[in-house]
Amino acid sequence: MAEEFANIIIDxxxxxxxxxxxxxxxxxxxxxxxxxxxxxxxxxxxxxLRKGYVVELTDTAEYDSSRIKEIxxxxxxxxxxxxxxxxxAWWMKERYGSTMNxxxxxxxxxxxxxxxxxxKIIRTSLTKEELENRRLEAERKHYKAxxxxxxxxxxxxxxxxxxxxxxLNLTASTLKPLIDRGDIYVERLAVYRNPxxxxxxxxxxxxxxxxxxxxxxxxxxxYRRGKRETYLLHGITxxxxxxxxxxxxxxxxxxGKQVIxxxxxxxxxxxxVMRFYKRFxxxxxxxxxxxxxxxRYDQFERAExxxxxxxxxxxxxxxxxxxxxxxxxxxxxxxxxxxxxxxPRYHAREVAAKRAYMAEASLVLGSxxxxxxxxxxxxxxxxxxxxxxxxxxxxxxxxxTEIVDLREELKSGNRSIFxxxxxxxxxERLNRRExxxxxxxxxxxxxxxxxxxxxxxxKCPHCDVSLTLHRNGNLKCHYCGFEMRVPQxxxxxxxxxxxxxxxxxxxxxxxxxxxxxxxxxxRMDMDTTSKKGGHEEIxxxxxxxxxxxxxxxxxxxxxxxxxNVTLVGIVAADLSLHAPDFTCGExxxxxxxxxxxxxxxxxxxxxxVIQTYMPDHYSIQYAAEQNYEKFYETEMAYRKMLHFPxxxxxxMVQLSSPEEEKLSRAGDRLRSETEPFGTQEKELEIxxxxxxxxxxxxxxxxxxxxxxxxxxxILLKIRKHLEKLDLPVQLQYDLQ
Length: 736
Ligand code: ADP
Ligand code: ZN
Ligand code: ZN
Fold this sequence. Notes:
The chain is an alpha/beta fold. It folds into five domains: 103 residues, GIY-YIG endonuclease (3-Layer(aba) Sandwich), CATH 3.40.1440; 73 residues, no CATH class; 179 residues, P-loop containing nucleotide triphosphate hydrolases (Rossmann fold), CATH 3.40.50; 184 residues, P-loop containing nucleotide triphosphate hydrolases (Rossmann fold, 3-Layer(aba) Sandwich); 87 residues, CATH 3.30.70.600. It contains 22 helices and 30 strands. The strands form seven sheets. The chain has a seven-stranded parallel β-sheet, sandwiched between helices. A six-stranded parallel β-sheet has the order 16-26-25-17-24-23, with helices on both faces. β28 and β29 form a beta hairpin. The longest helix is centred in the first third of the chain and has 16 residues. The radius of gyration is 28 Å and the shape is globular. The protein starts with a strand and ends with a strand.
């Protein structure tokens, strides 16, 4: 039986997409109307015909069914980009579990009522001294938000409005009394809307090498013949994947089709973007999260009108309303940033596959370290595997990599965080005026403080995490922003012997400066890049040669090309191995491989030193060898043994509640509701609910239930069943 009613939105460029109108499907059209369809409907008292998109089909009348009007007809003018996106939203709602409205909001660019053509900045006319007094006053009264604002103003003199409302977590109502009092004022600057300026097209800049040509030709040949497939371009760092993408894009554009290129935000640097502009000129547009909604809307509108043919951007660029989409490229496809943190919690890779399928487009995934999921599909033939095994530039070879066992260093009396070998190599670089990158997978000064007498770490009173020591001498919680002075004695046992442990970027910076007073040192982490453009500034200063040593976290290892870097030191390779998560081996391998790939991109040979307490761990061993295949085999065997994805599918349900009692009752209920799904097939496994790795955040307790099964559809069924239970706790689902 076909459904009776259709829920329809009339104006999807409007601010609110949640306003739907219900219409009856006339018998003649039953079974012919799909989600996404553009239809004609009588609207308002005059019953004037208007166009609307079907967003949902249902058998339930929303009000008195005799008063529901009928759809007048189907608008048959080809499938528009919007229709496709609405259908995609519907698929996302089913797949990831969200409301249709949430899915539509993710997929459709929403026009803002007042277009934001200005940028707001919070300024002050107070002196530094007055600001400091205001800060102290706020601190005394425990006005946390005010304190953060004043302290930012003391530091920077002015604060961008988005930074205040975003990063500092202030609201308009906290700002208002300060404006009224005359402490601060908001300045509005008009901004130039179009982020694209004119570029010279230089055409192709390099000749592809044999391997690159082979990979590109394989795709082009398929494309010409009308074959649409998913490809995995597996190329080591520096193998020239971007050149291959551009060659593929050329072919697609020639056939009058359009292209979406996804690049993780962190790698979306000026350098990278310019390569595309130089090759394709003004056919290209770029979006990033720094654009206002209005600016993003403009870019999407240009795409819809066909004014541009290529859209480059992070995750959300996937929803560019191209009507002749021919290719989606996802660079660094293994990146965690491709997964959305808000509902619907979609993965760009999966949604891209769906959109490509709907649009009859091809999909290219690229990476030096593909996700296990993708590589498995490439091996089984579901994806076509294209391989680049050598560096693209002549004379550029993979760096020499050595592993240093930190336990041995300690044994022979070296208590510094730099091994003797690393020190030797750093000195050598300084003498030769070459550059060094020191990589650490942490932020903050020292990871945590603990009591040497009772062994307890100092924890946040609201969250179940250790506080981080910052250079200003305060302890800070990275989850809720709680901050306190370092206490004189242990809160548990009153012992005065409390001390910092671990190493962070700030600490390494200090030590480096002390050891090499002549060296120019730059540091890049969340703290130094929170200012707008800070990230870009530090990278370009380093690539201009304004520093000898760059110290940083994950951010520095992503896709930047520094030809003068001949040494990469990975200070503590195992830090990421201790994360309580089955993917930590994979993450560690990816990070180390990418970090190692930064060395020796120019003409001079590179060197990589991996310092570790676990020199025998396969993630570290194979990263040092840059041996992806071996890593894949070992990691897959482990996943298979423990029944983890991609070998098995897994549904994770996170329960949270301020009341522990409710949480545990809900947990039992979820478990017992899940168990019956396993009666026929023994394949069902339920683990937990167990406490989340951080049990308490912001005074909310969290538990996780793991449900594993070989069959994806059964897990989908389980999720739908659990969603209907209406338990008195917050639930969040993640299906992988
Ligand atoms: P990947 O994305 O695989 O890390 P890139 O595409 O960024 O690699 O290429 C790395 C460097 O090699 C870039 O500077 C690029 O201009 C250069 N390059 C790529 N292909 C060639 C080629 N065929 N000949 C010369 N240089 C190349
Ligand atoms: Zn103690
Ligand atoms: Zn906290």
